[in-house]
Task: inverse folding
């Protein structure tokens, strides 16, 4: 078995150190290196200074591969290129291919090109130029005493594009990858610790080359099972077998076998059945509508929403009788069921989904504390409704109520 | 003038290197150190291995202060504490104060405490224990050859709490801070490069101890003017003067003199005037409602929304005559104005805000390409409406249309 290679990441930019920008590049590189069968050893963020860059480069001379992002722009504070020349004992020379790339990019965008942009075509003589079709900053590949340094722009979408298109194929060619595979199982309706108890025996019996990660988010838990093994077939088959065991343990909590939000699962189910829904939202304030309309093509399954934030609107728009609100209170089973049937009728949909609750931080009573949410789903078969408490944080209440509304709708569709 | 101290950050955790979690702690620390008059020199992320931790500690012996986060939990992979003992040549001993903290935390949460949690009270003999009221992991302060190492848990909310309550006061006492101050000006309705052109002369004439950052986001640009100077009064007065000059240059684009979303500005204006609004949303899909309802107390100004995603609902719910839709098309000035007045009447609000457009990626025509959005605001004075093109990315179209809808409402309120 070949030895694992050591990969380090260096991010250059003052804006990262003063907290103006969160460094998302390091995590993205880590994830994509893992998926390709490599491992990120460390990630260092430094400012735009020659001293910091040279120190960081020197500290990486025990690595096999150094991935550097940032500091490659045309402005005065982008000092990576001159510092590269110092470290690699070379000089900046004009690169026609890089210049052509800058010219064509400006042409495509219809902008005037300035003399300053010409400086982007000046590259260290010792480097191999790698085309960047995503922007004007160059991508560069250099070696020193067997250590490969690859330089990418810091702008995340440029970095991601270049890494995927150009760098990763080169890295795979040069270094040995250990086959890696991951599976994601999406669960809802069960808390992380209860889930952990349910699958404890299975988790403890996993082969040592597989590992399980719990990734909890508002009202759901993503489970990621991943592993690395020289024998890719064995890895694949073991994952198949273990995922089958897992799904048999917790079938009622799984809403997707890939990384996607629950509204996507509901969208697919509705499309397959040729059915539609509409929502009547009080405490979720339009979020049920918002998340479904982020999906292109949602107009095929989603008729609309009525956010009746003001109580009289529940009567006027949704036809909830005022005496029902008066008698049971606006946060009640009776009201949520009338809202669900009301919006189903109003919008002429197959399903009506309704929420009413107290998102907080104020407005709670002893009987109906902050976090109380009634959710109802109406269909041709009648109305199903349930009461929940989603805690005290307003944003969390809204998000968890939204996810649970989709989960209740999904239950009606399976 | 005292010399600036060198502060380094080390984040420990495999989950950061495989991209399972994005390291937000480093940016947060960078921002809060800046605000307190310090500067973060570098931020290093490493995995849970003794070798990596020792290498990182040794590489920090040229710093004055090292802020370490993560790896302090009760599980086997949390190896920071034993490694600290190795580096500082000390041993783990039982700490009663740390134990009492763990016990009281479990009591407060009503959970059973396990033997494993007792291990959290074992601390390096050489360390000063700093109480963590946010969780069970300890906070520790150690010194080696004049370099201070401060250890915090990696969980962001615990780290933030401890840093603010306990560490920052100690750091301020021990090291010299250079007074820092920042101001944020929120603009909308003008692109970053046009804004830069308008304020170019002002920006170039700024005193060298002030710096301006452009932070663009969907449809708006945050301007941050910040500076550090030993003379805090001079710094404050200079900022006052420069901010006054800036606001005089671009008064029509500024919606807030502090870091807040535009719906917050609209919320405040409506509260002050005792007025309300409602929305009729097509392409924004409930997002106008969603963002306002994230603000506690929004029910005082927001009556509700009607997301009429299905075209017939525009007629049925909002009363837009079918022949108007037929004649002008659903994405048109006539329809958006009828939607705005329709929802204003329906919801009995002072203002009605409406959107209709093509969020994409499909559904565009030559006449009405993807990204086209009509926005209308109805009031007792009539309806104002405008047409925009917000580009091809669905999420971006939705976000920019939402911000512009609030901007148009704001214009009616000032």
Result:
């Amino acid at each position: 078995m070949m030895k694992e290679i050591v990969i380090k990441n260096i991010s250059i930019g003052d804006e990262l150190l003063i907290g103006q920008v969160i460094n998302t590049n390091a995590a993205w590189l880590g994830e994509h290196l893992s998926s390709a069968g490599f491992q990120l050893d460390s990630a260092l963020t430094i400012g735009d200074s020659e001293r910091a860059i040279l120190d960081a480069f020197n500290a990486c001379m025990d690595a096999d591969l150094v991935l550097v992002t940032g500091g490659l722009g045309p402005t005065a504070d982008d000092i990576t290129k001159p510092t590269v020349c110092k470290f690699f004992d070379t000089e900046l020379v004009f690169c026609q291919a890089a210049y052509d790339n800058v010219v064509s990019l400006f042409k495509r965008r219809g902008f005037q090109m300035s003399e300053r942009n010409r400086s982007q075509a000046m590259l260290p003589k010792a480097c191999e130029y790698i085309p960047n079709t995503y922007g004007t900053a160059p991508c560069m590949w250099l070696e020193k005493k067997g250590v490969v340094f690859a330089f990418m722009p810091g702008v995340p979408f440029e970095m991601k594009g270049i890494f995927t298109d150009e760098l990763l194929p080169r890295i795979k060619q040069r270094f040995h990858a250990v086959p890696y595979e991951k599976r994601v199982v999406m669960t809802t309706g069960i808390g992380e610790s209860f889930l952990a108890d349910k699958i404890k025996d299975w988790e403890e019996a996993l082969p040592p080359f597989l590992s399980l990660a719990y990734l909890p988010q508002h009202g759901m838990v993503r489970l990621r099972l991943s592993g690395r093994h020289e024998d890719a077939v064995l890895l694949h088959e073991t994952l198949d077998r273990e995922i089958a065991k897992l799904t048999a343990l917790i079938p009622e909590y799984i809403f997707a076998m890939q990384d996607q939000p629950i509204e996507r699962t509901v969208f697919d189910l509705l499309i397959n059945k040729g059915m539609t829904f509409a929502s009547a939202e009080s405490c979720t304030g339009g979020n049920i509508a918002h998340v479904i309309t982020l999906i292109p093509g949602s107009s095929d399954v989603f008729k609309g929403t009525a956010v009746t934030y003001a109580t009289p609107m529940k009567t006027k728009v949704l036809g909830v009788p005022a005496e029902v609100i008066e008698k049971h209170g606006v946060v009640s089973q009776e009201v949520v069921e009338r809202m669900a049937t009301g919006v189903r009728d109003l919008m002429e949909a197959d399903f009506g989904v309704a929420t009413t609750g107290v998102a907080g931080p104020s407005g709670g009573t002893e009987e109906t504390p902050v976090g109380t949410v009634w959710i109802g789903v109406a269909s041709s078969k009648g109305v199903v409704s349930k009461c929940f408490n989603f805690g005290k944080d307003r944003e969390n209440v809204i998000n968890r109520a939204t996810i649970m509304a989709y989960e209740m709708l999904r239950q009606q569709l399976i």
The mean pLDDT of chain A is 93. DSSP finds 16 helices and 17 strands in chain A. Residues 282 and 356 of chain A are 5 Å apart (CA to CA).
